[in-house]
Amino acid sequence: TDVIPARLCGASGCGGNSEIQISKAYTWSGNTLLGLLGSRRYNIPLYFRTVMGQNVTAGPYQVLLTFSINYNVCAVGAVGACLTPQTGTATTSILLNMTVTNDCSTMTTPDVNFNSAPLVQNFPTVSQSVAVTCTKGSTYTIGINNGANALNNVRRMVSGSNFMSYDIYKEATSNRWGSSGSERWASASSSQVSTDGLLRTYNYTAKVLTSQATPPAGTYTDTLIVDVAF
């Protein structure tokens, strides 16, 4: 069972010694409550903060907090003296709710560089990886679009009015890595996964297609979009 530690404080930002420990007392007094003394309704400031660095699955989280309040306030005061003190004890509860949603915090997508070659058959196959860190236990697919210059579902780099066809494949296979249907890559079949299950790596190969005629010399580029879908 996953849990999210939370801090309860009597001051914004939980600064100083304002954190309220479990089963411990905390006193609101002085300037903190000056604005309360003209009313019969007392609003006591409470601040909640989660503890950073937790690895939890998506879903609802809640905790019921019970407070025992001992109060000693002055209803009527004169010349620095309290003429009508009000004291007593009250108990109340607060239900703290939080929902964690599936998301990805980091994605590493290095550029692909085929370097230089005189003929299309001389360009090397580039082997690289996309790395994604997502919510613990989440399942998703990851896709790569066709870029800005694709024709008939074939990716192309452009230089002026000239094009060079290339494509990207899952690992060292002939399975195209695309943006829809079976061409997307399921997280369950990632190339590697970290021990905590958060970081998944997807190894791929990028190739210049040798079935095309060698285009004129130039610097050819394209821009791809990598997306994650839950």
UniProtKB/TrEMBL annotation:
It holds the Pfam family SCPU. The keyword rRNA processing does not apply. Keywords: Capsid protein, Virion. Residues 91-226 form the Spore coat protein U/FanG domain. SMART domains: SCPU. PANTHER family: MEMBRANE PROTEIN (PTHR37089:SF1), PROTEIN U-RELATED (PTHR37089). This is Spore coat protein U domain-containing protein.
